[in-house]
Each structure stands twice: as C-alpha cells, then as structure tokens.
Amino acid sequence: MKAIKAAILAAALGLAAQQAAADDYPVDTVTLVTHSSVGGGSDVFLRELAKYLGPKLGANVIVENVKGGSGANAMARLVASPADGSVFYATTPTFIYTSLLSNPEATYKDLEPLVNVFSDPEVIYTAAGSDFKSLKDVVAKAKESRGTWGAANPASLERQLLERLKTAAGVEAAIVTHEGGGDMMINVLNGTLDIGVGEVQELQSQLEAKQVRILATFTADRIATQPDVPTVKESGYDVVARKFRGLAGPKGLPENVIAAWEKAIPELLEDPDYKAAYTAANLRPEFIPHDEYVTFIDEFGTDTAKFLKDSGVIE
Amino acid sequence: MAMFSQALDVLLTTPAVFFAIIGVAWGILGGALPGLSPSITMALLLPFTYSLDPASAIVLLAATYIGAEYGGSIPAILIRTPGTNAAAATVIDGFEMNRQGKAGLALGISLYSGVIGSLIGLVMLVALSEPLSAVALSFRPPSYFALGILGLSVIASLSGGSLVKGLIAAVLGLMVATIGTDPVTGGNRFTFGTADLLAGVEPVLIMVGLFAVSELFVQTAEQGGQIRVESRARIEFPGIALARRLVPAQIIGSIIGTFEGVMPGAGGTVASFMSYNEARRWSRHKEEFGNGSPEGVAAPETANNTVAATAIIPLLSFGIPGSNSTAVLLGGFLIHGITVGPMIFVKSASTVYGLYGGMLVASIALLFIGMAMMGPCIWLVNRPRAYLNAFILALIFSGVFSIHQSLFDLVLVLIAGVVGFAMRMLKFPFLPTVLGLVLGYLIESNYRRSLVLSGGDHSIFLEDPIAVGFLAVAAVFVIGSLLQPALAAWRSRRRGEIRDVRG
Prior knowledge:
heterodimer; B: mainly alpha; disordered C terminus; Tripartite tricarboxylate transporter permease (chain B); transmembrane helix (chain B); DUF112_TM (chain B); membrane (chain B)
C-alpha cells in the first residue's frame, strides 16, 4: 500500500516537474532552421526530432527550410533572430566549411552552439570485389603505385580526413573529389577508386546488397553494428573524427533555455519510439552538453581552418 | 507475373490511380508556367506527400514529372517560352508552326509524342532496369568528360548561320558554368563575395532570362501593330500520312531519351536537343527544320517524356539521382523511410511495382488531361498582347521567386534577359549558350578529376574505351557539319551541270 502511495506521489511529482518545465520554457513556438531542402539529410533529422521534441520541451516545434548559399542564408537568418530560445539551426560540418570558404556575412563564430544530438560515423569502404582486405593493403598499394582515394565533395570533412590519413601514412595518393556521395559510389564500385569515405547510413543499401565492404572507421571506438571493423587508429594511423549533428542558436542564449535543452535531449534520446525511429535511420546518439559543445565546435573550426589553409583552398 | 499482380494490387488497394491523375494535371500546369521546372513543380508537392501511403506519394511525384515534361511544350509553342528546360528545343519549330497558324497541330503532335515517349520510357524502365544500370556503372570520369564533349559538338550544327557566333555563344555559357564552387579544390570562383553565387548559377534562371524575358523585351521594343497569332482554338492530331512521317523522329527521340535518362547528369535538356539535332540529320525534310517542321516538335517532346521515365532507372538500381527531378523523387522515398538502391526490389518491391503501375496510368491519363487543358491554354494566348505580356512577366517572376524566395535570382533573370536581348539584336544563337551552361560543369569537373586520377597524364582519355568512342563520334559530327555546306554546294553544282548537259 505504501509502495503504491509512493508511486502515485512520485508520478504526481514527476507530472508537476514536467508541467513546471513546460511552463518554464520561455516561448510557445520553437523554429528549427535547416539549409537542406525538404527530404534532405538535416531536414529528415529535424522533422523526426520535431515530432518527439514538442512534449518534452513544452513548446510547439516547427521546421523551416532556409535554402541557398550552403547554409549562408540560414546563418544570416539565425543572427538576425532574437536569442530567446525561439530559433535554432541544425549544425553539421557544412556550416563551418561554408563559414570558412565563402566569408558569408554571418559565420559559425556569430552563433552559439547549443547541444549535440547525433554523430554520423565516417568510414573507409571499398568495392566488395576488390583485393583490399584491410587499410594496410590500401596504404601498401599507394606506396608502390598511385593510390586513388575518393571524397564526396571538395570542401568536406571526408577530404580533410583523407588528407590527414595521407600524411599519417606517409604516402602520395590521389584524392579525388566528387559532386556528392552517389557520384563517388559509382567510381568505387567500378574500381576507379581504391577506397571511398562516407557515412554508414549513406552506404546502407550497398552494404545490404554486399556490394561494398567497410575497411576501417574514423570513430574513436568501433561502431556497434560493425563490431569486426577496426578503427583507423587501431590500424596504426592517428586520425579520428566526429561528424556532428546538433543545434546552434543566436549568441547570448539565456541559462534557462540551455538548461531546458540539456534536460530534454538526453530524455528524448532514451524515448523508445524516437529511439526506434532514429536507429532505423542509422543515426547514432551522441549527446554533448552545452559547455563541451562550444569548445568542440571551436576546436573543429580551428582544425578545419588550418586544413583549408594547408591544402591551399583559402589564404 | 508476380510483378503485374503486385502492381495491380497497389493500384486497387491504394488511391494511387487518383494521385496519378492529380499529378499529371498539376505537372502540366507547373510545366506550362515558365520558371517552374519539373523538379520545382514536384518539390512543391513534397510537403503534401508526408501523409500519403508510400506508393501513392511516389506515384504522385512521378506523374507530376510526366505531366510537367509535356506541359513545358505548351508555352514553348504558344508564346516562344519554354516552360521547362527540356522544352527549349521545342521552341524552334513549335513556335514557327504557331506563327503559321498551326498551333493546334503543334500541340497535338507534342501531346501524343509525349504519351508515346512516356510509354516507351516506361517499358524501358521496367524491362531494362538492370542491364542498363550496368552500363552506368562502367562510366568513369573520362567517359563523362567525353559525353560532355559529344554534347557540345552538337553546337556545330545548332548555330544556324555563323559557326563563330555559335562558338562565342557557347563560351558565354561555359563561362557562366564556372561560377560557384571549384569542383576540385572547393574554393570559390567568380562569386564576388556573394553567398548567393556559391552554389553556382542555376541553368533555369539563365534559360528563363534568355528565352522569356528577352522575348518580352523584343515585343515591347517592336513598334506598330503586334503580329496576332491566329491559333485555332482546338487541338488537332496529325493525319495518317503525317503521323507516319513522324515515326522516325519519335524513334530517335525515344532512343536518345533512354540513353540520356540512364546517364546521371545528362537529363532531359540534353536529350531533347540531341534528338532534335539527330531528327534533322536523318530527316527527309531537312529544309523544314527551323521553319515549322512537325518532326522538330515530335523528336524533342518524345525524348523529354522518355527521360521522365528512364531517369528513374539509375535512381532505383543505385540510389543515384541523375537530375534535380529524380533527386526530389528520392526525397519522396526517404520521407517514407525507403532506402533506394539495389535492395529496393527486394525490400520495397510493392512500392516499385506500384510506381510502374501508377506511371502507366499517368502516361495514358496524359492524353486526356492534356486535351482537356488545351482549350484554356490556347484561349490564353489569344488575349491582347499587352495583358498577356504583363501576365507572363508576373508568372516568370513569381515562378522564379518561388524557387528560393530570392530577390537575387530575379536580378539574375533580368540580367540574362538583357544579355539575351543583345544577343537577339546581334543575331547570336541562344542554344549553344544553354548547352555550354548545362554541360560546362560536367566537362570541367570530369576533365580535372580524370587528371587527378592519372597524375596529370592525358593518355587516360585514350585508355577508356567509352571515352574514345564518344570523342570519335563527336569528331565525326564536327567535321561532318563543317563539310556539309561544301558538300551541298558541290552537289547542287553537279546537279546544275547535269541539267546543263540535258538542256
């Protein structure tokens, strides 16, 4: 009897706490901005998130697509918005690359990272029929003849990782850039490229069809769904990366807004329905709290700027 | 057989048939509005597909694509403004037929050629999905480079009078194609510090400016009475003799449409220009091309509707969208959690077969919906010029604005319009500019990518058999069209001599 009473009390308190959180959130409607078009990667991520986030946060959550300029327009929209927790932007490495490459009026430095939600593992893959059994084989080939390594886009995390791998392995490989992952996939499948770099979820259908094989991952630890695949670091080359998916807002976000998100996102990631949805979409949760995320984005920006300068893309 | 029963099952148990018809009607409208490309017309529907079942959603989008590829020819014929990029080739002879009072016939030819193209494309999609996707796989960067060069070689015979002017116009297009992100280094080129130019200039903006806005300028500049187009207010299908004459052009259109559809990046625009060109090359009535040839309407309109079906082949078998329209279609699949790629035939077979069935319904519905919407369209063109021009300008601007809600795009369209006006005055052809713009990036990126692969060694282009084949065909085209005037002169002189002897 006592136990039941306690349970009821706890439930009531929990409800009250939730109610309080709902009342605490300073605005009624939260707009999540993305530069990707309807149906694109970040758009799907946000729409799925918005569906489950509303009740947890205690506000209506809507998604707005601000296209153009690879995120430059979306960043300008954010900077012009009030820092009251009503507008956030879906961050991926793209927003840092755009900031550094094209000098838009508003850059990532004008925004305040909020929290990180997911991280997409970047992996090295090869055609299923190729002779490469490990990353060592790939490097060995690059040592004796001309290695051909593919990255989806010229100014991208993928290319940065390959340049770093090239330096770490001390080889001269041709790093071939493309106009997107699909374009590169053909060149991996037909043997033009030794290896390609991409996100696991982009490879999903080719993996299921056993057309490609993953050789190594750029993650810090092995990924759960591919337990037999070593990390690049285990293979002997110290290159690790996190392709982040999180949120950022205008500068000067209030404490209570940050606290509300730091509470809502970890809860949301545990929500069984949402978990089923994002697991099916091959997203891997990686919550990073506010303070840590600010430092992380800052370091990511500094590293990227250095890479872009070293490779001669920017001055 | 399982395929047919599954397709039938989807058609009977879901509202896919209804959405196929809605899609065609919406597609014709969107295609007919200059500035709304098929991909934009489809993208406008995307938000509505969230709540549909997967098969209906995909069918709705694919049917819109089919409708839009036909709809683009309506303004091309009636007001000399291609409603879609792929209808640009239809302008040449379609508008000429209109001027000769045969608008109803031109529209009828376009409509039934579109239906034939859609049906042939669908047959290709169903039957050749796997073998053709193997061809796409053997395309390496040098092959794509050569494909682009082959496309450019068409300029030699598209230039009308002066080859030099044609080449200048083409270079203009190639120059615009270099604006944006460098394909190899990722640096910015010619963006003048504007974020709006980062992603490059969208061909549709330049096309709308060159074709539509400059036409409005020319009409405004014309003094005195307007030439009123006496269009018959009824759609007219060709008689048996003419229909028979159109068959070779339609076969050429569907063959080229099939190939271009399968190759990512080529798309309906290249297909319609190439088939226009080939139809002229093989025609018995070459002299009519440019002067209102019915074949000049049938070939590109068959081709672009064939592409609307065959462009789905690389999407289904590799998950690779070869064009903006198929990228939107991919978005439709993703919304419903379907991974597009080799496994789709195993995991979501019923959706794929439902798509086939829905496209069949849409192709047939195109004939009837196209006829039903023809009357209002022809009525529209006979309104007083001043009102009509104002209406077209409003349509162009609202259509262009709806793409990115960008004022910058409107400025680009106006600039392109002014450039187009100057080109018209100086008698430069537009088509090479458009080809340069469409193919420039494909050629440059694959040329440089090939050299990165080979470490700067140009022999990579000779080691790729597909590239060698394409380059050889391109060389034959260029030399052939250069020799043609000389050959024609020689022939007519000989004929003259024979006559002299007889006389």
